[in-house]
From TrEMBL:
Gene Ontology terms describing biological process: endoplasmic reticulum to Golgi vesicle-mediated transport; GPI anchor biosynthetic process
Protein name in the entry: Metallophosphoesterase 1
Residues annotated as domain Calcineurin-like phosphoesterase: 69-308
InterPro entries: Calcineurin-like_PHP (IPR004843), Metallo-depent_PP-like (IPR029052), MPP_MPPE1 (IPR039541), PGAP5/Cdc1/Ted1 (IPR033308)
Family: Belongs to the metallophosphoesterase superfamily. MPPE1 family.
Function summary: Metallophosphoesterase that catalyzes the removal of a side-chain ethanolamine-phosphate (EtNP) from the second mannose of the GPI-anchor protein intermediate. Participates in the glycan remodeling steps of GPI-anchor maturation to allow an efficient transport of GPI-anchor proteins from the endoplasmic reticulum to the Golgi.
Organism: Rhabdornis inornatus
Protein's membrane topology: Multi-pass membrane protein
Length: 398
């Protein structure tokens, strides 16, 4: 049987064999192009910017001019030289690069926030390894001059509190122009950037400097929110900022006991939801959380770190959104947040990226079909109707 099939293959006209090989190459190329390029456009194209309440009362031109379109993502965890396998690096970074570049092209945001843990080994990477990681990040997350990129420090970028040093903090700040307690105002909207790793409360040098900046900024914002006719000597010489309640951006979430009350398909797995969170490790301490709420009275808090989605209401009125990881290494279903924000309101919408399990299924199905086509072509796989015909002929002969 095998020798007969081998003879058949050799006797096939060269033109026919080349034609079949060309068809196989086209099939494989089509699958690769779809799974590694087109699928990102197909999935992200379905995402839409949310409408802000009251947007219907103003013209479309006024709305586009006053609404800030922001993309928020977290925990990219670019692998380093110590723990990162080259194939894992190649795969994960390609996925994130294609997702990010596709989102920029289709959605055209005004600003993008990355809520920490940009790198996986920034807490211990050497100067050379750090430079290599930064180079790869800048390639993956390159953007036009019309889109601003803002990056927050996470524990994997500068180390947990016991690993954090002034050198690591300065290294991060130099690359990303980030400082804790920095105010970013765009279209009259106040964003407060917090180095949550430095909210340990033990009086360390980095912690003390960070908290002092936050207190000073809190004073400015609170004075700016007061009515013009309200007399306050403490605010007389303070620089006035836009009178808009701030939005806090940080890596660690504020204190919560666990993810037990978190819902949604991208929340923590059921077996992890009831595991208690450790203060100053999984979430901020209760004391640090109360400080931030008291200092700023924010209208929204955006955080990362847990790699899973969650929505919490603090003090019964202040929402906090935990943004899940943007990396397929941490999740089968990564996503990012799309926010339409004005000085007085905001609306958020989640945009899911392609599920890795679905991409894997497509590859498996394509591989199985490819094997069947090859076997059928070399006549090692007999077509069902031909096999049935042979059985009938044999039965008649008997």
């Amino acid at each position: 049987m095998l020798s007969s099939s081998s003879t058949t293959v050799k006797n096939l006209p060269l033109k026919r064999r080349l034609c079949f090989l060309l068809k196989l190459m086209c099939f494989v190329s089509s699958v690769l192009i779809f799974c590694e390029f087109l699928i990102y456009y197909m999935v992200i194209f379905q995402c839409r910017w949310p409408n802000v309440k009251g947007g219907a009362h103003v013209s479309e031109k006024e709305t586009s001019a006053s609404v800030l379109k922001a993309i928020i993502l977290a925990d990219t965890h670019l692998l380093g030289e110590i723990k990162g396998h080259w194939l894992d690096k190649l795969r994960r970074e390609w996925q994130m690069e294609r997702s990010f570049q596709t989102a920029l092209w289709l959605l055209q945001p005004d600003i993008v926030f990355i809520l920490g843990d940009v790198f996986d080994e920034g807490k211990w990477s050497s100067p050379q390894a750090w430079a290599d990681d930064v180079r790869r990040f800048q390639k993956m997350f390159k953007h036009s001059v019309f889109t601003e990129l803002v990056v927050i420090a996470g524990n994997h970028d500068i180390g947990f509190h016991y690993e954090m040093t002034t050198y690591k903090v300065n290294r991060f700040e130099k690359v990303f122009n980030f400082t804790s307690g920095k105010l970013l105002t765009r279209k009259g909207i106040n964003f407060v950037l917090v180095n949550s790793v430095a909210m340990e409360g033990d009086g360390c040098a980095v912690c003390s400097t960070s908290e002092a900046k936050l207190v000073a900024l809190s004073h400015k914002l609170n004075c700016s929110l007061q009515k013009p006719n309200h007399s306050n000597k403490r605010c007389s010489d303070v620089e006035k900022l836009p009178a808009s309640e701030p939005i806090l951006l940080q890596h660690y979430p504020l204190y919560r006991k666990s993810d037990a009350k978190c819902t949604g398909e991208d929340s923590a797995p059921p077996e992890e939801k009831n595991i208690p969170f450790k203060e100053k490790y999984d979430v901020l301490s209760q004391e640090a959380s109360q400080k931030l709420l008291w200092w700023f009275q924010p209208r929204l808090i955006l955080s990362g770190h847990t790699h899973s989605a969650c929505e919490v209401l603090h003090a019964g009125k202040i929402p906090e959104i935990s943004v899940p990881s943007f990396s397929w290494r941490n999740r089968n279903n990564p996503s990012f947040i799309m926010g339409s924000i004005t000085p007085t309101d905001f609306s958020l919408q989640k945009c899911f990226l392609p599920f890795e399990s679905r991409v894997f299924t497509i590859y498996c199905a394509a591989g199985a079909l490819l094997v069947i086509l090859v076997l059928a072509h070399v006549q090692l796989l007999t077509p069902p109707f031909y096999f049935a015909q042979r059985l009938i002929s044999k039965h008649k002969a008997v």
